[in-house]
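Subject: two folds for Thursday's group meeting

Dear M.,

Sorry for the delay on this. The cluster queue was jammed most of the week, so I only got both jobs back this morning. I'm pasting them in the order they finished. Each block is the input sequence followed by the predicted structure tokens. Could you check whether the formatting survives your parser before we put anything on slides? The first protein is the one we discussed after the seminar.
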Amino acid sequence: MSRLRSSVIVSALAAAGVSATSMAQIGLRVNWTAPGGVPKTCVIMSDTDGVSMDAGGSLVLNGSFGAGCPSGETTPPLPPVILNGLDAAELPASSAIGAAHTVTWSADADTCSYSASTFPAAVPGWPTNGDICTTAASCATTQSAAVLLPVAGSYTFALTCRRNGVTAPVISQRTVVVPGIPTAGCIAPIGLTRLEQAYVEFNYTVNNGINQDARYFENIYGYFNDETPLKPYPGVTNLNRRPFIPLGYYMAMQFTVPSNLAIGTAGRYRFEETQPQARTMSYTLSKSCGDFRATPQAPLSPFCTTNGGAPGASLVWIVGTSVPGLCRLERGETYYLNLVHATLDAPLISTCPRANHCGNTLQNAVEAGSSPWP
């Protein structure tokens, strides 16, 4: 028999002129609507014991409905709902290093967490481990989080809420970009445009990539997949990323070498041979965004460029020391990894044979003999 609220039974008894302690057989008329159905009136007939009251004050009736009425099946739980989600008033599309924001939310759910969030560095006030609320009552209570954006980069705040017995969670998400403080503006030749959002495929996942903020190195090379937290420079070792660059565009990925990165840490950017779409590409490490000068400016060396590289070509970098053939980077300094499907001698003449865009794979690899990457 389906569960009936006591108030419904009492109303029915009162309408029939029968007291709650009566032992006579009785019929109750119940106005009822099946999930997704239309309102109907069902009659439940009690057995000869009628209606009684147990020691706890609850009414008890043994009986059955007729055909087409409630059968005693349990109604599935409703999906979770985020009542007050993340919004632009609290988390704007862009902010500044060191900025503080207060985020409030509530949900009709059993548990909520921030674990799907991805940041270039830990955000005080927004823990990505554990649940923020663990009961329906606590999730329904307005939560308040005071967050601080510590470094430049792209911050994706995600609130994920779940209902017991329901497989799919509900997610509220906002991305905040915090520009760095570059030492110079973009200096690419007129006719080339910086690509800000790029479709990127990961480790040969053909036709299974995601759109990323291409202005920051960590967004491309800072994680193994789109669910793990971002790692600061030099990122995750030995990753293959295929960014698709439209004709007339270039990528400039900003990064800051951590001040605590060990002297002698080294790596290489290698034009990986798998299915290249543009015949050649050039890439540079520079203090300037969009720097495609064939001769790097001091203090960077000629080893900080790869000019019209074919598959297999590499640019090797090292931190805090000079080694022949390697591009020296300094701790605490901000740089750009600039990428274009052209040669540095003719950056406006694309080597992409396609009508709209090309995607070549550039590998982020640890160099032999390097200090361990963090």
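Second protein, same layout:
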Amino acid sequence: MKENISITGDTTGVLNKMKNIGTVVFLFGLLMLVVAYMENVKFLRVTSFFTMLVGTFIATFDKRSFFGIRKLNGVQKTGMSVFTVGAVVFLFYWMGYPLGNNLLYLTILMVSMFAGTMLYTLGGYGNGAKGVKNNGVWHDSLSNRGIIAWFSAILLTLFYLQLYWFPKSINELIHLFDPLSLFLRRKPADNWFLYGTMYTFVIVILGIKFIIKYRYNKYQVYRTIVVVFSQLILAYFIPSILESMNEGIGYFSKDLKNIWPLNYSFVESWSLNNMVKPQKVGPSGFFFFVWGLFSFLIITPILTYYVGKRWYCSWVCGCGGLAETAGDSFRQLSDKSLKAWKIERWLIHGVMVFVLMMTIATLWPYFSGKEYVIGPLKINKIIYLLFLELLLLLSSLGMYFLFKKYKRKVFLVGISILIL
């Protein structure tokens, strides 16, 4: 006879009280964290972080499952333990407390996180019958918007804020990646190298996890291999090697698969200047400029016409790659309704029109009234206008072929707008 494990009566009341107390402690820790960064008090950062952790512990504690650990098998528990070693190293450097030899601790961080994730994955998906295992996703605090999910989301948001606007507050963490940056780029790490490395690392390890989980589905396996390859080679290794060929380089998107309009900053003046001035960038800058034009003028239209947008969003894009790997445990939370799909379609095309208008508006003052040298090319106001006219007419021609194929009147409206 199976044991009845439903929670009723006094047990429910105790758990609710613990959840409320834990939530209050968590919010107090969050307030302390804000003050810690406003006043730049390093010790208070650590205190506030552990206060949030204690709040999460109290709010989610259940002695029967002990955060779900008791439900795990031995391999999964070992994986969690190994992963925790790397997480602790990351946390110390993030909070501003370097541990010593950067090469040693960077190796410990990456090896332990990789090995821990693989062990946990093999323990969860390595055995059993064929099929996708998503057991318990609606009962897990992390994958069902529980306090652990909020705790993780706040920390991730904090990390992004520091990375983009306050990189000096994570100097120790940035310098932890100096050995890898010196090896690949021949210069110390900066906040963007840290970002790219962690982004790529997450896609690689969780991509392998995804492949193990969906190993009986060939489409998912092949697609994920391409996603991991695109991020690791096109977005990380090749750009780093090209960057190492230059003595000094200005900042611009060096991700070879970051194509306009996703890479909307491609046409901004500071980005163009950094790509096309040899004395500032070196030989690779002009390569990125030519590749950027070639990718969105030739590669993207042809592949999208014959395959659809999935070739990029699901197989190549870094954002899609992160969504398909790291986001796999959360896909049940997305809206699957027809209404949501219709809203998404309108938003996608609306954003596309807006980006096109902003691109023209951005380039116009850049090229108007002056002659500009880009490698072997000379562009002035007239050439820019003729080039723009040619692109719009080619776009209208492409839309005409779409009208002939799909017989939708909306394409005729688009053709009229483009010609005007």
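Two things I noticed about the second structure. Strands lie at 372-374, 377-379. Residues 162 and 169 are 7 Å apart (CA to CA).

Cheers,
T.
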